[in-house]
C-alpha cells in the first residue's frame, strides 16, 4: 500500500535538517547538510532537492509525498518568502516556495520554527485535543506560536507571535534587535545565562558557575549546578521562572489558552524551570483564570521537533 | 418585501438598551429600560420580551427577526451564560440564552460588550475588509475584542481579550479586581481622571482642573481644558497616550493586527488621545512592524455602538 508522507525541512543558519514524516509523527529518515555550502539560493535549492531524493531512496516502502513543510527564520507564511533573515546568507526577500515549486509540483508551506512547533504540537504533540494554546520555544531566543479557534494566528502580515520581543521593563537588557527590556533577554537559554552572570555580580555565594566564562557556560551546566544545590544556579532558575510566569499570566489575558507548552533548551531543565514558572503564573493570573491554565512540557521535547513541526504544516493543510 | 432584522440588546448595570438593526447597521427603533426594576431573572426576561415586542410594533415594515444578540458583562459565549457579574443583581451563573430561548425560538448569542463592539466593527464599522484587528474600548475600564483570521478570539473558556487587566507595572495603581498595575487603571475614562489627580499632586501649574472634585471631574472637562491649553490636562493626555501606545506596541507582537480601533468615552477626545498614542505606538513598534499598524477611530463612534455590536453577533453567525 502506498504510504502518505510529508517532507519536513528546518532551515537554520548553520544546518538544514530534513526528514520524512507520516501523519502520526513517525520519522522514517532524516539527515542534515550545511545551509552555507552554496553561495546562490538556486544552488541551495538544487542541493535540497538532491538531499530530499536521497532521503526518499533510503526508505524501503512505497510512498507518496503529500507536500513539503519548511521552518525558517523570518519566513512569511502568506507570501512563501524568507525576508531579510539576519542569520542566513540570502539577502533581501527570497521567494522560497515559488522557487522550490519549480522543482517540485507539490503543496509547499513555510513559516517560522515556533509556528511550525505549534502546529506540530497540534498534529502529533500534546495539544491534539486543544483549540486554544501557545507553544513557547526557549532556545537562543524566545519564540512563540499561538493557536486560537484551532488555527495558528499569523496576523496581518504573517508576523504574529513575536512574544520574545514584548517589552517587560523600561531600560532593561539589550536584545538582538537593539531594543531594551525584551522578554527573550531574560527568558531563553541565553537569558538565563545572562541572569547567572548578573547574579554572579550581585551575590557573594560560592558557586561552581564562577569557574565558567560566558562563552563556556550553557544550560546543562546550570541545570547540573542547580541539582547539586548551587545557590546561584537555583536563584537564576527562580528569577527566570518568576519573569516567565508573570508574563504568561499577562499573555493569558490575550487569547486565554488552555495550556502553555514549553519547548527548547531551557525547557529541558524540567522542574527547575517548570516549578517556579507555574507558581508565578498561577499567582499572577486574574481571578477568573486561576486554576484554568496549564503549563505543560511540549510533546515534541524528545523528538526532532523542528523537522516534525515543519512536516506538520502539510498535514494541517490536508485536514482543513 | 420581508426585511431581515436582528435584535441587539446591551445589558448594563443600570440600563438595558435594545434596538432593531438590519444587516447594513441601520437602527430602526431603540429604547431602554431599567435593568434593576425586576428582582428575579425570569421577570427581567419577561420585561425584555415585552420591550422587544413593543419595539417591533413601532416599525412600520414587515420584518423577520433573524436572531437576538446580547452584550453583557461577564458573559460566556460558549455557554450562553452571565457568570458572577459584580454589576448585575443576578448572582452566580445565569443561563441567559437558554432561558431567553424558552421565550423566543430564535438563534440567541451573548458575549461581553468589547467583543460585541469588535464584531460590530467587522460587520458595519471600519474593519469590514480586515481579518486581523483589535477594538479597544476606553470607558469606565479598558475592554478589548481581538479578531484574527477573521474570527473573534474567545479563547478556551470565553475569557480572551481582557487586556485592561494586563499588568504594566509592579506595585502600580489598584484596579477594580484588587490587582495592582493593571492597564485600565491608567488608560480608560477613569484612568485619565486618576492621572489628572496624580498630576495635580505632582505639578505646581495653575489649572482649571483644580476646581473639580474627583467625583465631579469627567472626560469632557479634561478635553475642554486641554483645548484651552491647560498644562495639567495636556500632560494627562500625553501620559495616557504614552502608556497606551507602548502597550499597543506590545500587543502587536501577539496577533499582529492591521489596525487598532479606539472606541468609548476617552476615544471621543480625538486628537488629544490619538496623537500621543500613535506617536508612542510607532516609536515602540518592533522594526518589522513599523509603519504597518494603524491606529483608527472606531466606525461605531457616533452610533449606538453597544446595541449595534450586539446585533452584529447575529449577522456574523449568519454569514459563517
Q: What does this entry look like structurally?
A:
- Two copies of one chain form a homodimer.
- By secondary structure, chain A is of the alpha/beta class.
- The first copy, chain A, has two domains: 3-121 and 304-319, Nucleotidyltransferase, domain 5; 129-297, Nucleotidyltransferase, domain 5 (2-Layer Sandwich), CATH 3.30.420.
- Chain A has helices spanning 41-58, 96-101, 113-124, 189-202, 219-227, 231-255, 271-284, 305-319; strands spanning 3-11, 15-22, 27-34, 63-71, 75-76, 81-83, 93-94, 108-111, 133-138, 142-148, 151-152, 259-263, 294-297.
- A five-stranded mixed sheet of chain A has the order 3-2-1-4-8, sandwiched between helices. In chain A, strands 11-10-9-12-13 form a five-stranded mixed sheet, sandwiched between helices.
- Chain A is globular, with a radius of gyration of 20 Å.
- Chains A and B meet through helix 6 of A and helix 6 of B.
Short description:
2 copies of one chain form a homodimer. Helices cover 35% and strands 22% of the residues of chain A.
Amino acid at each position: 500500500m502506498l504510504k502518505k508522507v510529508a517532507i519536513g525541512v528546518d532551515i537554520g543558519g548553520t544546518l538544514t535538517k530534513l526528514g520524512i514524516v507520516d501523519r502520526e509523527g513517525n520519522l522514517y529518515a532524516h539527515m542534515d547538510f550545511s545551509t552555507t555550502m552554496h553561495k546562490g539560493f538556486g544552488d541551495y535549492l538544487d542541493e535540497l532537492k538532491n538531499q530530499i531524493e536521497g532521503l526518499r531512496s533510503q526508505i524501503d516502502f512505497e510512498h507518496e509525498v503529500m507536500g513539503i513543510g519548511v521552518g525558517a527564520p523570518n519566513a512569511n507564511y502568506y507570501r512563501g518568502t524568507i525576508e531579510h533573515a539576519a542569520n542566513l546568507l540570502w539577502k533581501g526577500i527570497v521567494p522560497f516556495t515559488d522557487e522550490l515549486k519549480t522543482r517540485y509540483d507539490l503543496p509547499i508551506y513555510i513559516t517560522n520554527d515556533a509556528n511550525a512547533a505549534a502546529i506540530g504540537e497540534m498534529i502529533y504533540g500534546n495539544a491534539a485535543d486543544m483549540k486554544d494554546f501557545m507553544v513557547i520555544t526557549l532556545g537562543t531566543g524566545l519564540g512563540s506560536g499561538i493557536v486560537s479557534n484551532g488555527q495558528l494566528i499569523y496576523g496581518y502580515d504573517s508576523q504574529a507571535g513575536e512574544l520574545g520581543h514584548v517589552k517587560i521593563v523600561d531600560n532593561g537588557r539589550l536584545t538582538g534587535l537593539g531594543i531594551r527590556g525584551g522578554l527573550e533577554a531574560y527568558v531563553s537559554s541565553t537569558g538565563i545565562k545572562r541572569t547567572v552572570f548578573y547574579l554572579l555580580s550581585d551575590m557573594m555565594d560560592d558557586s561552581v558557575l564562577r569557574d565558567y566564562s560566558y562563552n563556556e557556560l550553557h544550560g546543562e551546566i546550570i541545570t547540573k549546578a542547580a541539582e547539586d544545590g548551587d545557590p546561584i544556579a537555583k536563584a537564576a532558575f527562580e528569577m527566570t521562572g518568576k519573569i516567565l510566569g508573570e508574563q504568561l499570566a499577562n499573555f493569558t489575558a490575550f487569547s486565554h489558552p488552555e495550556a502553555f507548552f514549553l519547548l527548547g533548551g531551557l525547557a529541558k531543565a524540567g522542574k527547575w524551570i517548570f516549578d517556579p514558572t507555574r507558581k508565578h503564573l498561577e499567582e499572577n493570573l486574574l481571578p477568573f483564570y486561576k486554576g484554568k491554565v496549564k503549563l505543560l512540557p511540549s510533546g515534541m521535547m524528545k523528538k526532532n521537533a523542528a523537522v516534525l513541526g515543519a512536516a506538520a504544516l502539510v498535514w494541517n493543510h490536508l485536514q482543513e
